[in-house]
Design brief:
Number of helices: 3
Number of strands: 4
Number of domains: 1
Shape: elongated
Helix content: 25-40%
Strand content: 15-25%
Strand order of the largest sheet: 1-2-3-4
Largest sheet: 4 strands, antiparallel
Length: 97
């Protein structure tokens, strides 16, 4: 079976690649933070995520590392989500102590 010629190794379709201006970063820190809040609220609940605000974001080369604040007053651990800058793929999602 032939590979789909519109999808490259990085998983970004040719349509998305052509729609992204050259040199322009598709997923900015603001977009990554909004996406992180939505995904985390969906998985862990809005109240749990709200208790971890403000989320912190770190630029880690080709990805954004977003974490909840330390010292969470309610049970559980600190949230972390890692999002690819190129295509918004969620690379990692965890709740750690």
């Amino acid at each position: 079976m032939a590979a789909n010629p519109t999808v490259e190794e990085d998983g970004m379709s040719m349509l998305l690649r052509s729609a992204t201006p050259k040199g322009k970063q598709l997923i900015t820190s603001d977009i990554a933070l909004r996406l992180a809040e939505m995904v985390l609220a969906h998985v862990y609940g809005k109240e749990y995520v709200d208790a971890q605000l403000p989320l912190t974001i770190s630029d880690v080369g080709d990805r954004w590392d977003i974490r909840g604040r330390e010292g969470i007053p309610i049970g559980g651990g600190r949230l972390q989500i890692i999002i690819a800058k190129r295509n918004a793929r969620i690379l990692e999602l965890q709740n750690f102590p």
